[in-house]
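sorry for the late reply, my laptop died twice this morning and i had to redo everyting from scratch. anyway the thing you sent over, i finally got around to it. pasting the sequence first so we're on the same page, its 345 residues, then the predicted structure underneath. double check i copied it right bc i was rushing
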Amino acid sequence: MSDDEYYEEETKSNTSKKGDEAFAKAKAGMKKSELDEQLKEYINEWRKQRGKEEEELKRMKEKQAKRKEIRAEQEKKLAQQKKEEEDKARKEEAEKKAKEAEEKKKRLEEAERKRQEMMAAQKEKGGKKQQAPALDARREMSKTKEQVEEEMKISLSIRIKPLDLDAMDSDELKTKAQQLWDTIVTLETDKYDYEQRRLAQDYELKELKERQKIQLRNKAIKKGLDPEAFTGKHPPKIRMFSKYERRTDTRTYGDRKKLYEGGWEVVRAEMLEALWKEKYDDWQKRPKAKLPKWFGERPGKKAGDPETPEGEEDEAGGGGEAAAEEDYEEEEEEEEEEEEEEEEE
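ok and here's the structure:
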């Protein structure tokens, strides 16, 4: 290839390269404008959607606020209604209690009036005070502490009338004060008398309980039981004569106590006593032998006794030796028997 040809080809290739670049730039410009238009469309669509969401959110917030207001009004109405019901119930309860108190007051006033009339009649007759029925006493005992205090207040309000001090002058006030003082002294005197009577009754009850304990102790001792058998909370157990016999034990405490005194020692002492008596009787039955002479004189010879012949002395000496041997053997046997008995014990 010549230089001219090479130059022409190079010139053509540069020209084609520039055209391609221009075409690519034009194409890229077209794509960019399309992308911008698409992006604008997307942005406009997003703004519309966001506006709708904001409107929906705003509408829901307004609806929630309205619901809160409605709920608050309903709760307020319910609270007001509940309060009115409670006030009504409280008022009805107070009216009921007031009515009951009024009825009780009237009843107590009537009872107080009757009591005053009865006391006046008794004072006129000079008789003794009548006993109250047992049913009324039982009813009084079954009342609670609050009921008793309430009735006491009502009764005191009936008995003690309020003083009209404004309408009294000095002399009337002094007279009324003296009357009140006398009443206080009388009440304190009665209180002291009742306290002393209670102390005396407590002492008498204590003395009666001690007497009862002594009687129960004596009764238990007579029956052969423990002295404190009848003084406890529970009755004594029935003591049987034996676990094999269905009859009660009538022996006294002393008899049952003597059953266990001594025991084997007493039995052994009785056995030894009988054995000793038996051996002593055997010993008393033994043949009596005269002692042989000693240096020509018989031992034990008294003054004035005749002389013993020679043959009799020999026989007596032989018989004495045999008897002594028998006694020795018997003593050995007794000792062996006692040793055996001690080993068995």
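The mean pLDDT is 78.
thats about all i looked at so far, will dig more tmrw
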